[in-house]
Amino acid sequence: MTAELRNTYFTSMTVDKEFVPWHPPAVPDEVDLPDPVYFGEVLAAMDGSMDTAGLTFYMTQDLERLPSYGSDVVVLLMGDEFTRVPSYFGDVLAIFKNYPVRPALTTSVLREPSWMNFWWLVAYGRTWAHHLPGARRYRRHRRDGGRAAPIWRLPVGAANQVELPVKPLEERGTDLFFAGSILHRPGAVSKARERLGPKTIAREAMLAQAETLAAKHRELSVEMVITREFVDSIVADRHSYSEKLMDSRIALVPRGTAPDTYRFWQALRCGCITVVDTVPRDRNFYDGAPVVRLSRWEQLEETVMPLLSDPARMRELHERSLDWWRTRGSPQAVGSFMAERLDGLRV
Predict the structure, then answer these.
(1) Considering 63, 86, 117, 179, which has the largest number of Cβ atoms within 10 A of its Cβ?
(2) Is the peptide bond before 103 cis (omega within 30 degrees of 0)?
(3) Neighbour tally for 290: CB within 10 Å
(4) Bridging pattern class, strands 20-22 and 8-11
(5) Is residue 82 pLDDT above 70, yes or no?
(6) Model confidence over 85-95: pLDDT tens digits?
(7) pLDDT above 90: residue 98
């Protein structure tokens, strides 16, 4: 039996992009992207734990228009990698985003010089160009005495997974695992922006190092599943992907087109030792996460081999990863975060 909700929910994350009534955690028909699966659970957890009632929630990618406005409207803004400020910031109660609220450079070209980090710096500059116009309007609006909705960061979430029992680390059959795309859009192969994008550079470097490691250390079980593009990864068999990830000791998590990736949270959820090349900055969800960070993928062998020969360290990271998911990234944790923020506005 579906629990009764105390607030009203709509989503436009459907094929036709029209807002439809939504009863979280149920997934609406014709969903275009997987975000309502994870965030449906988040909103259901939030609804059950908050004191405030009678709000209207819109889950959308639209930065310009909503079906209604007012002090009872809360927005979940999805997929904005450019950290833009939506135009309706003065007409709603609050805004939550599953991507950064403002640009953040998560690597240093001076301390960690590399071709990849140079292009990450270029992408950072492009993000600022998108962010500044809205940020200036936001500050001007507040300076002139207008009320501007608070904009809070949420994790990007864990898409395309099924709930599985946590498999003991010592029973897992794969040492190193990655599944995903190298190129974001294969039709853009000849375009400089695609070929020189941080995602492509990082993932090509990761793949090359993983293949070298597998050839050099044949005792290791290394599985690299490369999809044609981002969309193919999203629509892949989620049961198979979840089972493979749960059977892996170490998950490779290279950056995507933005610092956040679904894979970050998927790996922590499964208790994998998570090897990354960047970590988003946010004190509520990312700072201090129990991951192993590389400055460049050429460090893969020197990082992974000592880890695999240190069961105690592996066990520690495994347990801390599961705990980080439970306390920071799970729908219950994120739902509680949202409830606390919204209840605070009503005090």
Answers:
(1) 117
(2) no
(3) 17
(4) antiparallel
(5) yes
(6) 999 999 999 99
(7) yes
> Rounded to whole angstroms, how far apart are CA atoms 33 and 38?
11
Maximal C-alpha separation, the chain: 66
C-beta atoms surrounding 192 within 10 Å: 8
Nearest-angstrom CA–CA distance, 301 and 177: 14
Residues 295, 305: contact at Cβ < 8 Å? Answer: no
Are 194 and 182 in contact by the 8 Å Cβ rule? The answer is no
Give the pLDDT confidence score for residue 180 in this predicted structure. 87
pLDDT by residue (tens digit) across 284-314?
A: 999 999 999 998 899 999 999 999 999 999 9
What residue has token string 């975000």? 35
Residue with tokens 């909705």: 149
**CA pair distance 150, 341, nearest whole angstrom:** 10
The pLDDT, as a whole number, for residue 1 is: 45
Both tokens of 56, joined, read 């209207």
Q: Which two tokens stand for residue 327?
A: 């306390």
Specify the residue for token string 């490779």.
252
What would the 3-class secondary structure string for the chain be? CCCCCCCEEEECCECCCCCEEECCCCCCCCECCCHHHHHHHHHHHHHHHCCCCCCEEEEECCCCCCCCCEEEEEEEECCCCCCCCCCCCCCEEEEEECCCCCCCCCCCCCCCCCHHHHHHHHHHHHHHHHHHHHHHHHHHHHHCCCCCCCEEECCCCCCCCCCCCCCCHHHCCEEEEEEEECCCCHHHCCCHHHHCCHHHHHHHHHHHHHHHHHHHCCCCCEEEEEECCHHHHHHCCHHHHHHHHHCEEEEEECCCCCCCCHHHHHHHHCCCEEEECCCCCCCCCCCCCCCEECCCHHHHHHHHHHHHCCHHHHHHHHHHHHHHHHHHHCHHHHHHHHHHHHHHHCC
